[in-house]
Amino acid sequence: MRHGKKFNHLGRQTAHRKAMLANMACSLIEHKRINTTVAKAKALRKFVEPLITKSKEDTTHNRRVVFSYLRNKYSVTELFKEVSVKVGDRPGGYVRIIKLGNRQGDNAPMAMVELVDYNELYNPKGNKAKKSTRRSRRGGAKKVEAAVETTTSQEEE
């Protein structure tokens, strides 16, 4: 019986699965976005989010714990220097999975995995352009511009 055994084995032995998830996590940290299958993406999210949480507090112990999972010095440095600064105020949910459709060769469902704070399209804080609201279609903006011009001319006098 498999009571309480929830994580996906991905059809691999333990060592192969851990090495694959470590490599995928290093690629995600380095490139900020990768394409993979949906099952691997969900497994990667469970693997990498606790590591990002640990990277918020830069201590020697946390670096060693993260290094024991990732086994890549460059990725650990990148995670603690750049990624943790960007996600410092976020309480969780650092990874976004976007489904892309099926792969042409074997029809496997594909997904794009990305770090949330690095995508400017979905990030509401990243859009700095203020939207102008249009209240009426009858030329109200012309009246406002004329009023602004008259007030500035009065201030100059």
From TrEMBL:
InterPro entries: Ribosomal_bL17, Ribosomal_bL17_CS, Ribosomal_bL17_sf. Pfam families: Ribosomal_L17 (PF01196). Residues 127-141 have a biased composition (Basic residues). Residues 123-157 are annotated as: Disordered. GO terms for molecular function: structural constituent of ribosome. GO terms for biological process: translation. It comes from the Bacteria. Keywords: Ribonucleoprotein, Ribosomal protein. GO terms for cellular component: cytosolic large ribosomal subunit. Part of the 50S ribosomal subunit. Contacts protein L32. Belongs to the bacterial ribosomal protein bL17 family. PANTHER family: LARGE RIBOSOMAL SUBUNIT PROTEIN BL17M, RIBOSOMAL PROTEIN L17. This is Large ribosomal subunit protein bL17. It comes from Tenacibaculum aiptasiae. The gene is rplQ.
